[in-house]
Write a structure and sequence with these properties.
The structure is a homodimer of 246-residue chains. Chain A has 246 residues and is mainly α. In chain A, 63% of the residues lie in helices and 0% in strands. In chain A, α4 crosses α9. The radius of gyration of chain A is 19 Å and the shape is globular. Chain A starts with 6 loop residues before the first helix and ends with a helix. Chains A and B meet through α1, α2, α4 and α8 of A and α1, α2, α4 and α8 of B.
Amino acid sequence: MNGQLKLESIRSVLVRLEETILFSLIERAQFRQNRVIYQPGAFGPALGGECLVDFLLHETERTHAKMRRYTSPDEHAFFDDLPAPLLPALTFGESPLVPNQLNINQSIREIYFDRIVGALCEAGDDMQYGSSAVNDVACLQSISRRVHYGKFVAESKYMADPGRFQSLIRDRDRVGLMTRITDEAVERAVLDRVRGKAQTYGQVLRDSAASGLVDPAVIVDIYAKWIIPLNKEVQVAYLLVRNEGA
Amino acid sequence: MNGQLKLESIRSVLVRLEETILFSLIERAQFRQNRVIYQPGAFGPALGGECLVDFLLHETERTHAKMRRYTSPDEHAFFDDLPAPLLPALTFGESPLVPNQLNINQSIREIYFDRIVGALCEAGDDMQYGSSAVNDVACLQSISRRVHYGKFVAESKYMADPGRFQSLIRDRDRVGLMTRITDEAVERAVLDRVRGKAQTYGQVLRDSAASGLVDPAVIVDIYAKWIIPLNKEVQVAYLLVRNEGA
């Protein structure tokens, strides 16, 4: 089996990604919700009709595309009109995934704008628009990476025992696939570990008398309500397109 | 006194900035040194002769300049050919600083490239060039913010008792000014707090069996050898230009 598909190596990527996600959420939580940065046109016509966060995300993705970020099978862009890479293609080795165009960043963006910012940040406006938007981009990118890693998880589960999946895939049985990929013990372990990390990081900040503290329950909620379910949605969707690409 | 100059409010900004700096360093330390990303021309002519990190930093600053980042008195760009802001100017209120062009980012960049990356990251190349460069930009920006906050610290110290500084400034007595702004007890307290934070964050990562762990002594060293001394260099330099601008 391709090294990237060993469950052990996938798990270590996902565990380390928890820090990237937690750090980005903790950084964003320093600032108020600043709703104006999510409103298209709120800063006048200069941003081409985009809201401030979309403008920054779009510019960031243009730059990262030039650096060939989105040629990697574990990276997914939010925008689809990005420039070609300036750098010669890297040899990543053969992708362990079947070719696919699966990308649920629009759902991630919506949930992040409409639900996560409100859960994470104090209501109100502190004028820290640029800093908030920079951290929003970091949050969106880290969450997107975690959610789309579901493709690797699903491929790994499939390869370990194709027979368990083939009839469900043939029948396009989403509910059956969702049941088959679900491992409640693993999900509980993820939430427990995330809670522990959020408590520890939160305690350090509390000891520093920092403002904009994050309630560990909020981080656990973000994982439980959105990150884990969206990851599972990617797993199911990937399995359903799996045989088309093969 | 302007609220931004109260030592208490400056201290709380600096303490919270420790997390931003620590998070960015911990994120960078996941990856090898990847020296090729600091070598101009290493990726061919497409990057206009810049090394990969400078290319990304430059593009990032162009975007952030459009969002008026560098109109804020606590932000300093590494490049001086940036576009004008697209957004209408924010009213930050009157800057508490005297007008000045002081910017030591070239020193910060050099020390970061030549010393900090080597202290922080394992030697070698893991091909994670984009991720390394993205985190380099975050490190450079957070360290630059911390170092240049010396302007606020110096202004605050000056305003608290101008008489203690005026003759030293008139005599352009750098050594005397350095002695006057130095508070060894505060420096020890900063290093102790940074060590404690780095140990706690490091323990969480160790418990997760993460790779690319950061030795707390390295973080303390980065503060002791570079961040604190550069901050003090800014304080002295600011005091020396203080009366020119007034």
